[in-house]
Amino acid sequence: GHKAAENAEQLAGLRASVDGVKESMGKVEVFQKESLQRMERKLDEMVPHREFEAKLTLVEVEQRKFDLRLRELDLEILKLKR
User: Fold this and answer.
1) What are the tens digits of pLDDT across the range 40-75?
2) Where are the alpha helices (DSSP H) in the chain?
3) Spatial separation of the C-alpha atoms in residues 60 and 56, rounded to whole Å
């Protein structure tokens, strides 16, 4: 009886330790998630959306110019082949 009681007590202690670790991990996860969200917000604030969209539009315009130039070159090559 005495040994069984000791084992039960140790098991209860281990269970409490495991529960404590689980709870701590949960808190760490929440903290990490909040930290990541804060970092994302800071990054968003650093690059204003309008500025970002303007840059994106410029890139698209350059891409179209490039596409047009490629088509012009294709036409010139076709003319040379004739």
Assistant:
1) 888 888 877 788 888 889 999 999 999 999 999 999
2) 2-46, 49-81
3) 6
